[in-house]
Amino acid sequence: MRRRWRNSVVRAAVVRRQIVLAWLGPALALLFPSDPALAHTVGRGFVMLLPTNYYFAGGGLAVAVTFLVLLVLPAPVLRRGFAVRRNFVRPSFPIGTGLSWASFLLFAVLIAAGLTGSRDPLVNPLPVTVWTVWWVGFTLITAVFGDIWRTVNPWTGPYRLLTRLTADQKRLPRRRLPGWIGYWPAVAGLFAFAWFELVDIAPEDPARLAKLASAYWVGTFVAMLLFGEERWRCRGEIFSVFFGFVARLAPLWRGSSGARSMTIAGVPGAQLVDTKVLPLSAGLFILLALASVSFDGLSKTFWWLSLIGVNPLEFPGRSAVTVANTIGLAVAFLALSVAFFGAVLAGNALAGGRVAARECLGRLVLSIMPIALGYHFAHYLTVLLVNGQYALIAASDPFATGADLLGIGNFQVTTSFLNHPAAVENIWQAQAAGIVLAHLVAVLVAHGIALDLYGNARRAALSQIPLALLMIAYTVFGLWLLATPTGS
Predict the structure, then answer these.
(1) Among candidates 372, 376, 364, which has minimal Cα distance to 340?
(2) What is the pLDDT of residue 13?
(3) DSSP-assigned letters across all residues of 206-237
(4) How confident is the model at residue 32 (pLDDT cuts 50, 70, 90)?
(5) Cβ proximity of 126 and 206 under 8 Å
C-alpha cells in the first residue's frame, strides 16, 4: 500500500479563479492590456491519483441503479416527494436595499485594492475574494439558501436611488427588451467569462481584474437604466441568471402567502421540476455552465496537453495555448449540446414522440443543473480549502500595509494536509461523491420532469433511457477528470 501511495502522482496546477466578468469579456480584455503578472498565482489544488477503476464502476453503477429503481417506483410516490413543502414566516425586519449598498461598497473597496494594492493575487484581496469566496463559496451557499444574489447584488441600491432622484424629472430612458433576444446576452457573457478564465493570459492580475470588473459593473448599470432592472437582471446579467438557476436546486426559497413573505422548504431540485419550458437560449446557458467547468478540468490534463502538442512537464505558458483552448472551449460546449439534444430527442422518439421537441428540450435541460453544481463543488473544493486561508489574510490586510483588521495575528496558510495520503484520499472521495450525488439528483429531476411531460410512467421511463446513458458516461468522465494527471 505504501508503495502504491509513493507512486501516486500529486500535481499542482495554476488555478484561475476569476470574477465572472462582462459579457464583453474578450473584447474588454483587449482594451486593458496588463503588465506581466507575478509568478505567485492562486493554486488550483492538488489531485492524487488513486486506483480509481472501482470508483468509475461504482459511480456509473450508482447512476444506473437509480434509473432502474425509478422504473419500478410508483409515479405518485415521486410526484408526492417533489411536492412536499413546509412554509415558515420570514423575519419582518426591514432590509430594503441596504445589503445591495453594502455589497456595492465592498465591491468599491475591492476595486481600489485591485488597482492600488499588491500585485500578488494571493495577497491582494480582489482575486481571492472573487475567485474563492464569491465564485466558489457564494455559489455553494446559493445552492442551499436560494437566490441571495437577488438581494445582495451591487446594482440594486444605486439603481433605485437614481430612479428616485429622477422621479420628478424626465423619466430615465427606457427601451423595451425584445422578446426574441431571450437569454442570448447572458449566454454570450458566460462564454466571455469562461474564455477570460480559461484562455486569457492573466485572469488573476489584480489591476486587470479590477478594470474588467469595473467595466462590467458600468455596462450592467447602463443596461439596467435602458431596459429596466428586473428585465436585464433576469435575462442579461450573467450572474443573476446563473445564481437564479443554481437557486432552483436549493431546499429553501422565497414565497408568499397573501401579504406575508414566506420561506419555503422542500426537496432539493423540486423547483427545477416545477419550472416551465425554457427558451433555447436559456437551455444553452445551462449547458455552457457545465461545459465550461468540464473543459476547465480537461484543459489541464496530460491527455489534452498532449493532444494539442504541449509537453505537460514543460508548460510554455497560456499564450502558447490560447488558440487551442479557445477552440477547445467552443468544441466542448458544442459537443455537450449536441449530445444532450440528441439524447433528449432520441428519448422522445422512444416514447412515441407525443411531446413537442421544444418542450422536451426546454424542460429536461434543467436536469443538467445538479450536474453543473456537482462539478463546481468537485472542481473547486481544494481551491476553497487552500485559497480560503489566503482570502482571510487578505481581508485582514487589504492594502498590504501591515494592518490586522481581523485580529488574526501571524496566521500562516497551511497546505500540509495535502501531503498526507489519508487527507488527500478523503478530499478525492468527497469530490467523487459530489459528482456521483449530482448525477443521482439529475436522474431524479429528469424523471420527475418526464412524468410531467408524458403523464405516463412507461413513456416517461422510455424517454429517459438515452439521457440516463449520457449521465452514466458523464459520471465516469467526471471521475476520470479528478483522477487523471494534470499539468499547468
Answers:
(1) 364
(2) 34
(3) HHHHHHHHHHHHHHHHHHHHHH-HHHHHHHT-
(4) very low
(5) yes
Q: Which residue, among 107, 112, 106, 289, has the nearest Cα to 193 in the 3D structure? A: 289
C-alpha cell read off for 156: 440594486
pLDDT at 220 over 70: yes
Handedness of CA 360, 231, 182, 288 (dihedral sign): negative
The three grid cell numbers given for residue 449, joined into one nine-digit string: 420532469
89 CA to centre of own chain: 30
Residue 243, amino acid: F
Number of H helices, E strands in the chain: 21, 5
For range 92-98, the mean pLDDT: 64
Contacts of 336 (CB under 8 A, 6+ apart): 287, 290, 291, 294
β 10-14/85-89 pair status: unpaired
Task: Give the Cβ contact number of residue 85 at 10 Å.
Answer: 12
Q: What is the pLDDT of residue 481?
A: 87
Contact 49, 77 (CB under 8 A): no
State whether residue 476 is helix, strand or coil.
helix
What would the grid cell of residue 8 be?
A: 501516486
What is the spatial distance between Cα 192 and Cα 199, in angstroms, rounded to a whole number? 10
Cell 432552483 belongs to residue: 248
DSSP β-bridge partners for residue 287: none
Is 260's pLDDT higher than 70? Answer: no
User: Cβ distance 332 to 291 under 8 Å?
Assistant: yes
- Please provide residue 84's backbone torsions phi and psi, each rounded to the nearest 5 degrees: -65, 130
d(CA 30, CA 24): 10
Q: What is the pLDDT of residues 356-410, one digit of tens each?
A: 999 999 999 999 999 999 999 998 999 999 999 999 999 999 998 889 899 898 8
Tens digit of each residue's pLDDT (9 = 90 or more) over 431-467:
888 988 998 899 999 999 999 999 888 899 899 999 9
Q: Whose grid coordinates read 480509481?
A: 52
Q: Output the average pLDDT for the chain.
A: 83
**How far is residue 445's CA from residue 366's CA, in Å, rounded to a whole number?**
8
The separation between CA 453 and the C-alpha centre of its own chain, rounded to angstroms, equals 27
Return the C-alpha cell found at 94.
426591514
pLDDT of 19 above 60: no
